[in-house]
Every structure is written in C-alpha cells, then in structure tokens.
Write a structure and sequence with these properties.
The protein has 371 residues and is an alpha+beta fold. It has ten helices and 13 strands. 38% of the residues lie in helices and 17% in strands. Strands 1, 5, 7, 8, 10 and 11 form a six-stranded mixed beta sheet that branches. The structure holds dinuclear copper ion. Dinuclear copper ion binds next to loops.
C-alpha cells in the first residue's frame, strides 16, 4: 500500500489515518496536479504576501537558479556528445550487420579478406575520441571551478544549514535568526545578482542537500564544512530531499527553500528576529511545555526552553509544515504530533511524551501562537 505511486488511487486513500499524513510528503515529492493544488491551497492559507507556487520539479532539466543552469548546460553538452557517438557507432554497426549478413551463396564458405594495419583507420578511432575526452575534461573542469569557487557578490546572504536525523537546522548568523526546515532566501535578478551561500554541516551522520532546480547535490559531513550557493530567478516554494540514506526517516527529511522578493525576505527576517509575544491566554501551555521537559530539546526565544537537540520553535507557527515537511502545519496534524510523533514520523528521535489530552490541548494552543 505504501508503494502505491498511482496518483489517482493515492489521493483516493487520503481519507485514512494515520497513513494519509505520510501521503502528504509523497505529494510533495511526486506532484500531480491534484496534489499540488491541494498543497498550494494549504500554503495560501498560511502566507498572504508570499508567492505560494510549489516548484517540485525533481530533475535537472528545468533549472531556475544560476548554478543549476550551469549544470544543466554542461549536462546537455555531455548528453549531446554521447548521443552523437552512440548514433555513429550504432549506425556503423547496423550497416555492417545488414550489409555483410549471411546471404546463403557460395560466398559464405570463403574466408573474408584479412586487412592488417591501416594508419588511416587507426588514427580515425584514436584521435577523435582523445579530442572529445580532452574537450569534455576542460569544460567540466571550468564548470567545477564556477560551481565550487564562485565569485559571489560581497553582500551575498549566508545561511548555515546543519543536518540532523531527521530535520534541518537553519541559521542566519548575520541576523541572529534560527529556524528549521524552511529556508528563506531572496530572489536574484539576472541584471543585479543576489546570491545566497549555504554553509553545510552535520550534527550526526552524513546527509545530502538537494533542491534540483537551485543547485546540484552537496553532502553534509560531520566535522567538515561544505558550501554551495543559489541564485534563484523565480519566487516560490522549492522542494528538495535529503539524498543520503541517514536512517529510518531519511525519506521524510524534506527541504523547502522559500524564495521571496527582497522586500518580503527582509520582512520575514524582521518577523523572525522579534521575540514572540508572551500571550497570557496560553500561559498554561507554556508552563506545560516547560514542565514536560520539551525545553530540553527545543528552544523558544524569550522562555526557559533552551534545548538544542530538536528544531527551534521560536516562530514555529509561521512555518508551513511540521516534522521537516512530513505534514502541513495545522491544528489537526500538530495534535497528532503532540499525542505521538511516531504516528506521523515513525523512527524520528522525538519520543511519545505520553501527554494527557488537556496537556496536548494547552501546548497546542501555545505553539499555535508562536508566529
Ligand atoms: Cu538525512 Cu537522509
């Protein structure tokens, strides 16, 4: 049942619990019209001033960012070169098979003429292949340079992304902003570049960061820092995945890169910098959050919750999804998550806290105010 990739029946199953929550992530990665529409509507409800177009293309042939475009161009060159070689070789082979096939005459019994040493033929099958390889090596080397050592504008944004089993810690050092799983970056322009550099690290095992329309894959390796950059040309919500098998919930370690206009990006940063208001109406929820040790793993700005093992929840309610993209961030899913995270994300590192209904309700109400 989990392997049912057919769009029609997949959505047909969505009324069931709790499997349907996992369907949500399938929709993200394998969009069909219905899935995208549903998700877009969900997202629209959450974010007004934001472009909620879901960009879920999971291949390299529709790049929407500078490094992805460079990779796309070299892929076309290599593919075209290989296609030409294939046509020439397969063409000659087919010709020989047809032209010199056994015809059933007296000719069949005779040995064909034996040709030894032909400088022309030997040059023909050594020199062009060498030239082709040299050209591909040079072009690839130049491309690697462009991608790995880019000349980024001085005012490039920088985001630190730390892979955890099974979520992404996202830090904006310049602004002292910490969030998780949803990475906001500013829109670039072909005439005036706005680049964002990602500094990639891992807190535990090797993870892989891949948002195909923005850039190629880069690994997140413990005790080592890798970098990559993006320069997106269209606003919207770009979906990506962890690409290295990192444990039980590897497949649900989903990435959302949200490309905003520079103005909207600044507005988002300002919202994230602010300490959430201490709403007395949900004071009980905040007390329960602390009393049940949620603060040992989660940080909430302006409170005693200072944990670092789980996602920072300071502005949790401003996010579109929970559980690193496993489900939409709405009341129903959050309740399920608080009752038992293992239902939505079996194998995730947050245990069932065995909260009572009242505790769940008050913590839920509190978390929902963390805009
Ligand atoms: Cu992280 Cu796979």
């Amino acid at each position: 049942m989990e392997m049912n990739w057919n769009c029609g029946s997949r959505h047909g199953h969505e009324r069931q619990t709790p499997v349907r929550f996992r369907r949500f992530s399938l929709i993200q990665r394998n969009p069909c019209t219905l899935g995208v529409t549903a998700l877009t509507l969900l997202t629209l409800a959450n974010t007004s001033a934001q472009d909620s177009t879901i960009r879920a293309v999971q291949n390299i042939f529709d790049p929407l960012s500078a490094p992805a475009e460079i990779l796309y161009r070299i892929s076309l060159l290599v593919l075209a070169t290989c296609a030409i070689i294939f046509l020439v070789v397969a063409g000659l082979l087919t010709y020989a098979i047809v032209r010199y096939r056994r015809k059933g005459g007296a000719d069949d019994l005779e040995e064909p003429p034996q040709v030894y040493g032909s400088a022309a033929i030997e040059l023909a099958w050594t020199v062009p292949p060498i030239l082709i390889v040299v050209v591909l090596v040079l072009v690839t080397a130049r491309t690697i340079g462009e991608i790995q050592k880019p000349k980024l504008p001085n005012d490039a944004e920088q985001v630190r992304i730390i892979g955890h089993r099974f979520w992404w810690e996202v830090r904006y050092p310049k602004y002292d902003v910490v969030t998780a799983n949803e990475i906001h970056v500013p829109l670039s322009d072909r005439s005036k570049r706005i680049a964002t550099e990602f500094v990639l690290e891992s807190a535990d095992v090797i993870h892989g960061f891949w948002v195909p329309q923005l850039n190629g894959k880069t690994m997140l390796v413990p005790n080592h820092t890798n970098t990559m950059w993006v320069e997106p040309y269209k606003t919207g919500i770009y979906l990506g995945n962890c690409t290295v098998l990192c444990g039980a919930q590897h497949a649900n370690m989903l990435i959302r890169v949200i490309v905003d206009t520079p103005e909207r990006y600044q507005q988002w940063l300002n919202e994230q910098k602010a300490t959430p208001s201490n709403d007395q109406a949900v004071g009980e929820g905040q007390r329960q959050f602390i009393a049940n040790s949620c603060g040992s793993c989660h940080d909430i700005g302006g409170t005693n919750a200072k944990g670092v093992f789980g996602p920072d929840l300071t502005h949790f309610a401003s996010r579109q999804t929970l559980g690193s993209g496993v489900a939409a961030n709405n009341e129903e899913n959050l309740r399920s998550w608080l009752q038992d995270p293992q239902v939505l994300k079996p194998g995730c590192l947050m245990p069932n806290m065995k909260l009572g209904d009242k505790q769940v309700q008050s913590i839920l109400a509190y978390l929902r105010t963390l805009k």
